[in-house]
Amino acid sequence: MKTVTCTAPVNIAVIKYWGKKDEDLILPTNSSLSATLGQDELRAKTTVAVDSSFKEDKMWLNGKEEGVVSKRIQNVFRETRKRKGNQDSVDGLNQKIHICSENNFPTAAGLASSAAGYACLVYSLSKLFNVQGEISDIARLGSGSACRSIYGGFVEWQMGSLSDGSDSIAKQVTHDHHWPEMCILVLVVSDQKKHTGSTQGMQISVQNSTLLQKRIEIVPNRIKNITKAIIDKDFVTFAEITMKDSNQFHAICLDTYPPISYLTDVSRQIISFVHQFNDHCQQTKVAYTFDAGPNACLYLLEEDLPRVVSLVNHYFPPQNNGLTLTIQGRPVTLQTPTQEDKDAINIPVSPNSIKYLINTKIGKGPQVLSDPKECLLNDDGLPKSLQSQ
Amino acid sequence: MKTVTCTAPVNIAVIKYWGKKDEDLILPTNSSLSATLGQDELRAKTTVAVDSSFKEDKMWLNGKEEGVVSKRIQNVFRETRKRKGNQDSVDGLNQKIHICSENNFPTAAGLASSAAGYACLVYSLSKLFNVQGEISDIARLGSGSACRSIYGGFVEWQMGSLSDGSDSIAKQVTHDHHWPEMCILVLVVSDQKKHTGSTQGMQISVQNSTLLQKRIEIVPNRIKNITKAIIDKDFVTFAEITMKDSNQFHAICLDTYPPISYLTDVSRQIISFVHQFNDHCQQTKVAYTFDAGPNACLYLLEEDLPRVVSLVNHYFPPQNNGLTLTIQGRPVTLQTPTQEDKDAINIPVSPNSIKYLINTKIGKGPQVLSDPKECLLNDDGLPKSLQSQ
């Protein structure tokens, strides 16, 4: 049995992906751009194995066996096997694959776990099969945004123009160590009711949002400008484009029929908090972005982190007053918010609105874990997690 | 002293007005279309008087004296005096005007009271000064949407193309008795916090919403199609265009920077209620539209009114369970919602979310009240309401 174990990161788009022009090949209607988050806080971990004794392809996600018959999984398998390196001993075409994957964060967090999951699967398979060259297009076949999780730092998914999708690939914009001051704070909002899935949501938007075409024309300039801002470490420009693009994505959702609403009253209070804080500072110091759910992702610089987290804790405290919000990831020393800050920000104190924070930074792309202890499968090719139960 | 007393209606747009191309003349970036509501439920009432003894122009709104120095009021005065009929005995150019105006609904209802108020002022002045011909353009100078309250039924505000605004006027699409089955239900939402004013909001949207230009291109076709639907009494088409245009207006607000959010969680639950109800009926039976605030305005036909009001009462009951929502205006006989209806509509029961309902129909344009008892000013030209206090 040959195994490979890897990890892959979550990414959060600052220029949003919303709309496919090809549902099978997952070709987007516009390019998008994201930051790859640190894997200490948020990552998928996957072991892939091949052995002549395996009877069929099998997959376990977070300890539960899942089918491998989905078109997306099959597309990933087919494309990876097709590109198998010649020098490799593994018989990728005939041997069956076992896959075991786990996230280090609850799926209930409402973070796009499929991007990290598919990136990790494709990266692991590419190592197993010794695939050379571009693999982000294979990850794209699993989940569009997964192609951006193939690299660290800031990453652009270039929409491409070829009908076979071969130029619809991810490109690294800057390395993960390019902008070390940049912090990312995920505000996990308490109300996690079921939302319209992004696959279905973007289908309806493409079908009937009358504003989406205009957005498609607007995005290239935004990509160009935010890329320059990232390279120049120009936070103000980066932040304003990020917020405008998040708002525009949600505007397109609302212009869809029936309308799609991912933002809640709490999301809007966070938006209001950020704008009032920036106004008060007379400088754009914090940017928000929201994906297909109510959770906020804030971008800000290290120097402003304690002040901002302390204010978030002030306006969105846990139910039990006196306690502070749980912060996962990098520790932050909370301050007592100044009266001046509290006077300047006119939003109600809303207990129990935010469940917890995740404090992270820009991170690396997928990693191979060579220590056999990291392997998620036992010698029989079955999940160790099941064995121990 | 010569006095005239009139009433004028509220209107609710189904194709929204959002954006001016001329702030002084109040020329819109797109045409809009509204229904005029019944005055039994919602109206402004205004008495205007001229007398040689008056020292200055004076105005009382809802019992409180207000200045008349605002540019908008002055534009209305100037334009009305300019068009004074020759055969009239009133010396419109030199005599001072007293104005007293009251609404029969609380301004806290969040309904656009300025449209009814300016329509009533302009209509009253036009009668006082014997102005002949078009007056909706004068009302437009007070408040853009006021021009639509100059007529009953369904009314289009044609944006016009002349730089002096003389062709930016209201035109009646159908009379108030054209579609007698049409009902309008205003759901006054409890949370009435201060929102971005529409004048300021649309200024920012014009400045920086990158999607607004696309909307401006889309509106003419919507006006054409909804006009045909109204003439044909095609409720399904009317309702779908109405909902899409409300959603698009709020999408533009969200695409504005900083973003403007008028819809709350309650508004979104009402939207979800309407779509689920329509899906359940396999027919579009209810349409929602939202202006610059969280209140919903529902359009529906008389035959569906008891069922819909009963369901609204079920999902949005008063705080004190067992009571029913207060219904102002036309009475409705509540039913016990069927289990089938309740099973089909999957939204949480949200007590205390809706304050009360206003049940009304399509109504007439402004009316002259000739009974002297209706006059709001006493023989000294001062408000009777102040006298009695």
From TrEMBL, chains A, B:
Sequence ranges assigned to domain Mvd1 C-terminal in this UniProt record: 184-369
InterPro entries (UniProt xref): GHMP_kinase_C_sf (IPR036554), Mev_decarb (IPR005935), Mev_diP_decarb (IPR029765), MVD-like_N (IPR053859), Mvd1_C (IPR041431), Ribosomal_Su5_D2-typ_SF (IPR020568), Ribsml_uS5_D2-typ_fold_subgr (IPR014721)
Pfam families in alphabetical order: MDD_C (PF18376), MVD-like_N (PF22700)
Record key words, sorted: ATP-binding, Cholesterol biosynthesis, Cholesterol metabolism, Lipid biosynthesis, Lipid metabolism, Lyase, Nucleotide-binding, Steroid biosynthesis, Steroid metabolism, Sterol biosynthesis, Sterol metabolism
EC number in record: 4.1.1.33
Involved pathway(s): Steroid biosynthesis; cholesterol biosynthesis
Any GO BP annotation: cholesterol biosynthetic process
Enzyme class: lyase
GO cellular component, one term: cytosol
UniProt xrefs under Gene3D superfamilies: 3.30.230.10, GHMP kinase, C-terminal domain
Transmembrane portions of the chain: none
Residues of the signal peptide: none
Entry superkingdom: Eukaryota
Segments forming domain Diphosphomevalonate decarboxylase-like N-terminal: 8-170
Keyword Glycoprotein annotated: no
Catalytic activity: (R)-5-diphosphomevalonate + ATP = isopentenyl diphosphate + ADP + phosphate + CO2
Molecular function per GO: ATP binding; diphosphomevalonate decarboxylase activity
Similarity field: Belongs to the diphosphomevalonate decarboxylase family.
PANTHER family: DIPHOSPHOMEVALONATE DECARBOXYLASE
Function: Catalyzes the ATP dependent decarboxylation of (R)-5-diphosphomevalonate to form isopentenyl diphosphate (IPP). Functions in the mevalonate (MVA) pathway leading to isopentenyl diphosphate (IPP), a key precursor for the biosynthesis of isoprenoids and sterol synthesis.
Protein known as: Diphosphomevalonate decarboxylase
Organism in which the protein naturally occurs: Lottia gigantea (Giant owl limpet)
